[in-house]
Amino acid sequence: MAHSKTSHSSQSHRLKIIIADDHTMVRDGLVRLLATERDFEVVGQAGDGETTVAMAQQLQPDVLLLDVNMPKLRGVQVLERLQGKSNARAILLTATIDRPEMIAALEAGARGLVMKHAASDVLIKSIRCVAKGEYWVDREILADWAQTRGTTQPTSQLTARERQIVREILSGSANKDIAQAFHLSEGTVKRHLSNIYTKLGVSNRLELALYAMNHNLE
Question: Where are the domains positioned within the chain?
């Protein structure tokens, strides 16, 4: 009986994952990779965007591994369709992605972006990271993003409180959550964010998160 109870407990903590990619070999490879992790469970596979949307709504996975270039619906379109209909935290898998599409994906709800040629352990780490509610963006993508932005302001200008708020943003916290954590009003949090944006030369929470990851502000 004790063995049965332990087995049930371990399964209840496994992360449910859907793999969405139009290449069967890629999906098969990902299934084999994820099967090596005892806390992962692949609950579904999809080969096009429309199937992905239906499957994510039905199965409600913890994590959705989503190819950017999908038939019928592109990855970003899948994310847009799923807004408010699935709590899955999505990681976009891509061979190449330009900055506008990257920002669009994050705005549509993507929690991570990983290059397809990245090492296997990078993908595994990214899954665990986004499952905790954090962002994960491949360092190679961050480097490309940083180059398109040109020079940036030094992070040493940030106060200790501002750095705390940046860490909360990286963890996916909303203004209300940040206010409660530090016993501040939401208005004060908004003022801090405005100051942070000005100091770092970014214009929104997404660019702040990307900037913070690129400069290891943790």
Answer: 2-147, 151-214
